[in-house]
């Protein structure tokens, strides 16, 4: 068994010390003092400073630490280490605990050891991060919904040139970081849908904005999936879930697209939005709903109907 603290020993602490060493050096501190503040040797400080700070930062980002968290951590530690060892330790572990309880480090931990797909121990044992449990549930639901799309023998044919993404937000999202999606999106591989990575928060800026703009009129909307525009698939969607279809007007830029979304009213629990596209923008259909499992089930069911009734040749 490999506990999450192994992440701290192998990756988190060295990368954090590396960035902190660069920050302290930029403030004019000598290597000897930096070594004392970080509790390492001067040789270690020399190594940290000889390594590009972006490399240290990339290691933290790969663990699941967000850009905002990295900056907050290093800024607070820069002040804390110059005050006292105990205060710096408190700041370090507060950040570590918050990251564990949010579920942000779960994918990296699963990469170290198998059999942890349903593990939520850190979230349960460290409930101090606001929304930690909810974030875990959001990621879990997205993973299950994505598996439905990948298992479908027909949905892959409906992935647009810009690829698809499936997103799900917290109950009360404040910004794009509160909306989870699939990093690298969902691609078509041998006519099957294939998610490139495990779901993460902040993974799709465009789809996150779709959710946020729609919620100004439709607070029940938390999930969205984009597929390529096809009139026959639109009819298949309506046969699976009869609901009003909203057709957007032509627009000249992305802001025009989002402004229309902010004025689009939909009836829960599911809605279909037809995006006509623009210059250089591919037409899409957005299936939106209150949760990703509902959205995925509707899309998969409609893709089956569409595949068997479409009159054109499907390559």
Automatic annotation (TrEMBL):
Coiled-coil ranges from the UniProt annotation: none
Domain Thiamine-phosphate synthase ThiN, first and last residues per copy: 142-299
Listed name of the protein: Thiamine-phosphate synthase ThiN domain-containing protein
Top-level taxonomy: Archaea, Candidatus Marsarchaeota, Candidatus Marsarchaeota group 2
């Amino acid at each position: 068994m490999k506990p999450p603290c192994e992440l701290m020993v192998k990756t988190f602490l060295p990368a954090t010390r590396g960035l902190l060493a660069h920050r302290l050096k930029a403030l004019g501190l000598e290597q000897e003092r930096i070594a004392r503040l970080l509790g390492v040797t001067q040789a270690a400080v020399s190594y940290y400073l000889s390594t590009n700070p972006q490399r240290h930062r990339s290691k933290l980002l790969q663990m699941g630490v967000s850009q905002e968290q990295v900056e907050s951590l290093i800024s607070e530690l820069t002040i804390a280490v110059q005050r006292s060892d105990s205060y710096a330790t408190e700041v370090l572990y507060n950040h570590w605990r918050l990251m564990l309880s949010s579920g942000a480090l779960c994918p990296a931990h699963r990469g170290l050891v198998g059999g942890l797909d349903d593990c939520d121990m850190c979230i349960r044992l460290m409930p101090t991060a606001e929304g930690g449990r909810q974030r875990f549930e959001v990621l879990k639901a997205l993973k299950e919904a994505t598996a439905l799309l990948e298992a479908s023998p027909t949905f892959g044919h409906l992935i647009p040139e810009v690829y698809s993404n499936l997103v799900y937000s917290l109950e009360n999202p404040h910004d794009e970081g509160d909306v989870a999606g699939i990093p690298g999106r969902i691609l078509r591989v041998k006519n099957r849908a294939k998610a490139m990575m495990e779901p993460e928060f902040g993974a799709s800026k465009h789809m996150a904005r779709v959710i946020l703009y729609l919620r100004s009129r439709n607070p029940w909307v938390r999930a969205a999936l984009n597929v390529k525009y096809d009139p026959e698939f639109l009819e298949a969607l309506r046969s699976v879930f009869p609901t009003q279809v909203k057709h957007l007007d032509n627009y000249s830029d992305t802001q025009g697209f989002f402004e229309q979304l902010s004025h689009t009213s939909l009836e829960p629990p599911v809605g279909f939005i037809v995006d006509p596209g623009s210059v250089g923008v591919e037409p899409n259909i957005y299936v939106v709903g209150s949760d990703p499992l509902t959205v995925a089930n509707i899309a998969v069911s409609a893709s089956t109907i569409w595949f068997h009734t479409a009159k054109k040749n499907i390559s």
